[in-house]
């Protein structure tokens, strides 16, 4: 039976009688509807923010270690339901099951890290420049966080926002991607089962236009104090502009054109393995997916030969099986990917065979892609630094290859697109690794590893077109969901003026030995 899903505000179903219905379909078998989703309008989103604001005051009064135990319970609930949740992710967005199970594990890791942060939301006691006076700093919750997430990691990436936000004493309004609604609803139910009070976590299903309008209304009403957004650079700019008008700094995790540099001393088999996983895992639909391989000219031909061979052997197909990747996430991404394929120019060389949709007319081995949004993996050699294929994010299974002569040239090429999320270098020379780290503009650097290898306790985020410098994961995300408050306590019994009533000890600066 097809799931029927509605928004949840204040712990209760929130359905608008005039709401449109969105069908979330299985991209591996597009005739199958996974869930029918009732889409809310702007007023429902703004109402959810008001409900969250009302609930946040009491939630912030719950001692932080107790909030940490709630996070611990969420982790245990997710762990106990891991296989069911992973199967749902596979069914709804076509992510291979092994990869989906790893994504669910990332939620558990995130909870395991942050449950202890409930006892480590430290401030400081600071010495004063005057006697009988003490100075303190405190972390305080920001208030209500409006979190808007993409669907390529429908449960892991939301946890990077939800877990620390809730731990720090904030309430949340979460708007997931429509095409990942069933996965989001399942995750919400696991969070709610951990004992979160009604209204502390609210789930709103809406399209982009309604979400933006509702967010604008909530910001105007003062019911949102932090916005978290994972998605495209174009939409991130609009959200950044909207938040800026309200003097707020959002947490923006946007797109990437992630480079991989292959030096002449690289282990080529290892580099090929990294390029295969980061270029084609999740069908290239990660913000950290490999964009362009920059290969030293001396090993360029050998790398391309090995890479093309590895791609030719890789299995593409039913995500329930042992495959490198399955279908595109949703029809909208398949259509957009068709546009990206149009960026292949006459001076490029496709080294991997067929381009485009896998069909009975253009099968991949014995697989004809019948009924699903399946596409051939594409490796394009001869990409130039002025090509659109080099400069723009391509959300799909396509990787460009170009060559370089010096490391400095590779760093310049890697930075040229203006994104700054993830990067990678394959080398056995420590000096080259550290020069690359110093010169690259990316927020994350891997050495002899793929561009998509973040762990739950490291800062995740990008610069430039990939984000505004905010970071998710690890202790660094606490600065997104808390604000520093300073307090001074004067117990001298008199007014002491800072920088004025300060004791002075006079040195003899003319003294010489």
TrEMBL record:
InterPro entries: Ald_DH/histidinol_DH, Ald_DH_C, Ald_DH_CS_GLU, Ald_DH_N, Aldehyde_DH_dom, ALDH7A1-like. Its EC number is 1.2.1.3. The active site is at residue 253. GO terms for molecular function: aldehyde dehydrogenase (NAD+) activity. The keyword Hydrolase does not apply. Residues 18-486 form the Aldehyde dehydrogenase domain. It holds the Pfam family Aldedh. Homotetramer. Belongs to the aldehyde dehydrogenase family. This is aldehyde dehydrogenase (NAD(+)). It comes from Sphaerisporangium melleum.
């Amino acid at each position: 039976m097809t799931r029927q899903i509605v928004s949840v505000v204040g712990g209760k179903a929130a359905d608008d009688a005039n709401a449109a219905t969105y069908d979330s379909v299985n991209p591996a078998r597009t005739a199958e509807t996974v869930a029918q989703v009732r889409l809310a309008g702007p007023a429902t989103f703004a109402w959810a923010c008001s409900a969250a604001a009302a609930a946040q005051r009491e939630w912030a009064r719950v001692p932080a270690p107790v909030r940490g135990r709630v996070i611990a319970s969420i982790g245990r609930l997710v762990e106990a339901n891991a296989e069911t949740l992973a199967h749902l992710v596979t069914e709804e967005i076509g992510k291979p099951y092994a990869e989906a199970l790893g994504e669910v594990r990332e939620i558990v890791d995130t909870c395991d890290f942050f449950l202890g942060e409930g006892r480590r939301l430290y401030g400081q006691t600071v010495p004063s420049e005057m006697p009988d006076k003490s100075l303190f700093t405190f972390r305080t919750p920001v208030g209500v966080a409006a979190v808007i997430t993409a669907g390529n990691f429908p449960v892991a990436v939301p946890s990077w926002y939800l877990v620390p936000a809730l731990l720090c004493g904030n309430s949340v309004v979460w708007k997931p991607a429509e095409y990942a609604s069933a996965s989001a609803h399942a995750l919400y139910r696991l969070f709610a089962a951990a004992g979160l009070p009604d209204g502390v976590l609210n789930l709103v299903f809406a399209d982009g236009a309604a979400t933006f309008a509702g967010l604008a209304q909530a910001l105007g009403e003062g019911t949102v104090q932090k916005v978290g957004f994972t998605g495209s650079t174009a939409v991130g700019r609009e959200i950044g502009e909207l938040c800026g008008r309200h003097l707020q700094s959002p947490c923006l995790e946007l797109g990437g054109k992630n480079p991989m540099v292959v030096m002449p001393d690289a282990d080529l088999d290892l580099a090929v393995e990294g390029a295969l996983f980061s270029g084609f895992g999740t069908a290239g639909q990660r913000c950290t997916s490999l964009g362009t391989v920059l290969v030293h000219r001396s090993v360029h031909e050998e790398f391309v030969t090995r890479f093309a061979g590895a791609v030719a052997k890789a299995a593409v197909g039913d995500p329930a099986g042992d495959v490198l990747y399955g279908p595109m996430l949703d029809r909208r991404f398949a259509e957009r990917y068709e546009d990206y394929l149009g960026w292949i120019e006459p001076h490029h060389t496709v080294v991997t065979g067929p381009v485009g949709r896998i069909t009975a007319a253009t099968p991949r081995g014995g697989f004809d892609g019948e009924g699903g949004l399946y596409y051939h993996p594409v490796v394009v050699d001869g990409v130039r630094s002025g090509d659109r294929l080099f400069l723009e994010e391509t959300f799909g299974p396509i990787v460009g290859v170009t060559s370089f002569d010096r490391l400095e040239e590779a760093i310049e090429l890697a930075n040229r697109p203006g994104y700054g999320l993830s990067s990678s270098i394959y080398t056995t020379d420590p000096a080259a690794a550290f020069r690359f780290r110093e010169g690259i503009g990316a927020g994350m650097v891997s050495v002899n590893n793929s561009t998509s290898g973040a762990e739950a306790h490291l800062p995740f985020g990008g610069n430039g077109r990939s984000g505004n410098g905010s970071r998710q994961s690890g202790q660094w995300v606490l600065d997104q969901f808390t604000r520093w408050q300073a307090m001074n306590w004067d117990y001298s019994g008199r007014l002491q003026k800072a920088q004025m009533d300060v004791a002075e000890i006079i040195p003899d600066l003319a003294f010489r030995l």
